[in-house]
Design a protein that fits this description.
With 319 residues, the chain is α+β, with helices and mostly antiparallel strands. Helix content is 38%, strand content 20%. It has 11 helices and 10 strands.
C-alpha cells in the first residue's frame, strides 16, 4: 500500500512573501564549479511523475539542467517515512536548475488539484548529514536566521532521530513559495559546498537499502510517540518480530475506521500487526505496543507506513 500523502503540502507557518527578494549572492567561482549534490524526499506517487513514461521526464530534466538525477528504488524509503529519495549531483547552478524543474513539475500537479488561484505553499525536505547541520545553523543560530531573513522561506532542522540505528542524516524542511524555497536551497547548498566532509560524502549510497528494522537502539528517554522499540527474543531468519511503541493518542490513525488502515498496511507490507489492549503500555511510557511479525523486508515496510501516519499527525499538531 503506497502512501497517498505528498511531501509537498500546504504550510501555514510559512512567512509572508516579499514582493522583491534580493538577487542571490555570488559564490566564488571555485565553489560554483565544484561538483556537489543535494538529496530530498518525494512521495512514491510524486516520484513516478518525476520519472515520466519510460523515463522521459527525468531524461529531459537531466538534459535541460546538465545535472545527474537519481531516485531510490520503489520501496526504498527514507527511514521513518514512506518517501523516496532524489539525489541530484553536478555544479551548484546545474543542481538548482534541476531542483527547480522537479519542483515546478510537482507544483503544476498541485495547481491542477487546487480549486482557487492562490499559489500553494509547499514543503521541501532536504536530507543533510548531521555533521554538516552545524554549518547551516551557525553560531547561536546566526546563519539559519540570516537564511530565513534573506529567502523569506521557513527553515526547520529536525533533531537527530536516535530511533534508527546507523542513520546519521537529518531533514531540513523548507516552506514557502517556489521562489522562496529556491532561494533558501541556493543559500544552504552554497554553504554545504564549503564543507569538505559534505562534498566527500557525495559518493556514498544515497538510499538506505541496507537499513533494516531489527537493528534498534534500546528504548530510552521520555515517550515521543514512537520512542520505544525492541526486537523480541523469539526470532528466526524468516519470521522476525519487532515491537514499536506508538502514543495512545495516535493508535486510531494506525487502526483506521473499522480497522481499514491497519488491514491495508498489513496487506501492503506482508507483515502481521498486533496492537496491545488499552492500558497495556510499553514499560515506563504511555505508548501502546505495536508488534510487527514477518520477514525483515515486510517488517520494514509495515513500520515505515505506520511511522508515516504517526509523523504526519505529529507535524500537523505542531503546525
Amino acid at each position: 500500500m503506497e502512501s497517498t500523502e505528498s511531501s509537498y503540502v500546504s504550510s501555514p507557518e510559512a512567512p509572508r512573501r516579499r514582493s522583491s527578494p534580493p538577487p542571490p549572492k555570488s559564490p566564488t567561482s571555485d565553489t560554483m564549479e565544484k561538483p556537489t549534490y543535494v538529496r530530498f524526499l518525494v512521495s512514491n506517487a510524486a516520484a513516478g511523475s518525476v520519472i515520466g513514461k519510460g523515463g522521459a521526464t527525468i531524461t529531459d530534466f537531466q538534459s535541460q539542467s546538465g545535472a545527474r538525477i537519481q531516485l531510490s528504488r520503489n520501496h526504498e524509503f527514507f527511514p521513518g517515512t514512506t518517501d523516496r529519495i532524489i539525489m541530484i549531483s553536478g555544479t551548484i547552478n546545474e543542481i538548482l536548475k534541476a531542483v527547480e524543474l522537479v519542483l515546478t513539475k510537482l507544483l503544476n500537479e498541485l495547481y491542477s488539484e487546487e480549486s482557487d488561484d492562490v499559489e500553494p505553499r509547499t514543503k521541501l525536505r532536504l536530507i543533510v548529514p548531521n555533521s554538516s547541520c552545524g554549518g547551516i545553523i551557525g553560531k547561536q543560530g546566526s546563519t539559519i536566521k540570516s537564511f530565513i531573513e534573506d529567502s523569506q522561506a521557513g527553515i526547520k532542522i529536525s533533531p537527530q532521530d536516535n530511533n534508527y540505528f546507523g542513520v546519521n542524516d537529518r531533514l531540513v524542511t523548507l516552506t514557502g513559495t517556489l521562489e522562496e524555497q529556491m532561494r533558501a536551497a541556493d543559500l544552504i547548498l552554497s554553504k554545504l559546498s564549503e564543507d569538505s566532509h559534505y562534498t566527500q560524502s557525495m559518493n556514498a549510497p544515497f538510499s538506505y537499502p541496507a537499513y533494516n528494522t531489527v537493528s534498534y537502539a534500546p528504548p530510552n528517554g521520555p515517550s515521543n510517540g514512537a520512542a520505544g522499540k525492541f526486537q523480541n527474543n523469539k526470532e528466526d531468519r524468516s519470521n522476525n518480530s519487532v515491537t514499536i511503541g506508538v502514543a495512545d493518542s495516535h493508535i486510531g490513525l494506525v487502526v483506521g475506521r473499522g480497522g481499514r488502515t491497519i488491514m491495508e498496511i498489513s496487506q501492503g507490507s506482508g507483515a502481521r500487526i498486533k496492537i496491545s489492549d488499552r492500558g497495556d503500555f510499553m514499560s515506563g511510557t504511555t505508548d501502546r505496543k505495536v508488534t510487527i511479525t514477518g520477514s525483515q523486508r515486510a517488517i520494514q515496510a509495515a513500520e515505515t507506513m505506520i511511522m508515516q501516519k504517526v509523523n504526519y499527525a505529529s507535524e500537523r499538531a505542531l503546525d
